[in-house]
Specification:
The chain is built from 9 helices and no strands. By secondary structure, it is mainly alpha-helical. The mean pLDDT is about 90.
Length: about 200
């Protein structure tokens, strides 16, 4: 029994180290040697638990997604509140993962899943939620639910991933409470205009 617990503990330690390494350096920049060092294990032990780097990134992302507090991530019923809700969630829970997705955008990498199925499932749930709200008359019929999801993703992620550009445009550091309050207010204003009830 102790052996099983030790194996589980080692596996969790590797996944934690892998999360830090991948999210900090991207898939291409991450090194198995560095993950082993972070986890305090030898490189061969990582290959005992995972076939290779690709399985490790997939399981790392799966582990990260399953660790999120699902009760706190349920989209609000009122579409006007969704953008500010997602901005808060991105700051509070997803910032390091979003940095990893920025690495993905610039890396020249082979096509592989890298947790894509789980990520698609979440993003498609945003589309489905918006479509359901549209059917309830809460979202204008002429707006494509997928494009609304893409727009909200852009508005709630960009200032977090590109603080220098945000600072140059607005004169505010996106980590300052004053900026966060103003941006949240702006998201509310935009949402009220988009989702205005007739």
């Amino acid at each position: 029994m102790g052996e099983i617990r030790n194996a589980e503990r080692t596996r969790k330690s590797i996944l934690k180290a892998a999360r830090e390494e991948f999210f900090e350096k991207g898939y291409t920049g991450a090194r198995i040697e560095s993950i082993a060092k972070r986890a305090g294990v030898n490189k061969q032990l990582i290959y005992h638990y995972f076939k290779g780097k690709e399985q490790l990134i997939n399981e790392t992302i799966e582990d990260f997604i399953s660790s999120l507090p699902s009760g706190n991530l349920v989209l609000p019923a009122n579409p006007v509140e969704i953008a500010e809700f997602r901005y808060h969630v991105n700051q509070e829970y997803l910032l390091e993962f979003l940095k990893f997705t920025a690495w993905e955008a610039v890396e020249n990498r082979p096509n592989n899943l890298k947790g894509e199925q789980q990520r698609e499932k979440i993003l498609h749930s945003y589309n489905a939620d918006m479509k359901a709200k549209q059917e309830m008359g809460l979202v204008p019929k002429e707006l494509d639910p997928a494009f609304i999801t893409l727009m909200m993703s852009s508005l709630t992620i960009y200032p977090l991933l590109y603080p220098d550009v945000t600072r140059m445009i607005t004169g505010h550091d996106p980590n300052e409470e004053a900026f966060k309050e103003k941006w949240t207010h702006f998201l509310r204003q935009i949402s009220e205009r988009i989702f205005k009830r007739e």
